[in-house]
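writing this on my phone so excuse typos. first protein, seq and then structure
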Amino acid sequence: MTTTHHTLRDLLDNNKRWAAETEAREPGFFSRLLKQQTPQYLWIGCADSRVPANELVDLLPGELFVHRNVANVVVHSDLNALSVMQFAVDHLKVRHIIVVGHSNCGGVRAALYDSRVGLVENWIRHVQDVRRMHQDWLDGVPELQRVDALCELNVVEQARNACHTTVVQDAWSRGQAVVVHGWVYGLHNGLLEDLALTAGSADDVEPAYRRALANVKQRYSSAG
């Protein structure tokens, strides 16, 4: 794949062309967007530039609320992520929170091999915690598959964390319909895969977590 180098002027010109083409294709598109934002989905994904959330699921602006960070981490001390979740759940009334990781994630790779990558090392310590939690099993996964195995384990753990946030717990306690999911995206084939962590109530969380964990471990054990 050849990399195209764009200038900032190219980006602005691209934007003008996109806006004109969008308005021509759907007259009134932007005026409708101005009036309302009613997404049904909150996507919590990795900041990787190869994983463009809206495009992967073919949704228009206004249909997907998005939060991204390195290695799609959800931790209870991250006020940025929690604020996005709270706004999405309490005000936008999203019905689904989808934590999405991806294969060959650089942040996960750095966490797996204790790479020295600068300030972000402090952030991916959360992924190192996941690695340590499953270290004995990971050591038995073939080397070439270990990064992707940890990518999937990380999704399962971060989706579970999302379930345990006060935002989601409070929504469930008041009877609001919110379902948390864990997915992984394959950079090699462009496909999303449901990791079977699907929880729509506090009682669902641990059974869903155990099921998803078992599925990941079974798949990589079989592949090995």
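second protein below, same order as before
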Amino acid sequence: MKRTADLPCHPPPVVGFSDSYTGGFVDGFHAHDRAQLSVFLAGSVTINTLDKSFVLGPGQGMWIPANTLHQANCRTDLMFQVVYVDSEFVGPDLPCKMFDLSTLVRGLVDEIVAMRFEFTMDERMSVIARLLVDEIRRAPRIAERLLLPSDPRLRRVCEAIMLQPGDCHDIDYWARETGMARRTFTRLFQQEMGMGFAAWRRRVRVIEAASRIAAGQPISKVAFDLGYDNASSFSTMFHRTFGVAPRTLRFNSEPGSQL
């Protein structure tokens, strides 16, 4: 297994490696001078940019353009692959993107990771790199992401809720925490986020739930931890958001299933 620490000072234009982090590890905000594709094999991670937050699990990939500040927060032990791609292989119009991995993308990443760091960037590897970027561009975007506000007071509230999605404090409590009147808080939240506070918090909870269920936690425990009175009301909200029952995620996360 190649690791991050083995990356040479002057790698080829496209280079990949495998790595792993322990649960609870936080890779603070940083940026790379190349675009980055992260492919997640096991575990769950939250990736934050300055204005969005993405929750990813096994079978999903995250594309981050060059020079984009981002942070990774490992929710569980994490196994993943990373490919760094020089700008010569990437057009200017491929923004941050979370997507499900196809068999082809997995194969192309495996091929790049299998190469030695000092390999020559010949025609074959150039074709692989361009095809990988093209497949990322074609992959349907997963819309399940969380927007983050630019107002620092609202941002503190959102970050606190993301850390404790089961928190049940009402809007009056959070308005007081920001030093705002309820009406001001409500209006500013709607203006910045394009949705009300309650709707945003529900979205936090169902995305958190999807990650926990995929990791194998019992559905009833997830529902209780996230503030739902019973599994039935939780399942209704989950189906309304994702269009599938919660148990579907557990089936899809089993070894050998199609993700």
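The chain has nine helices and ten strands. thats all i got for now
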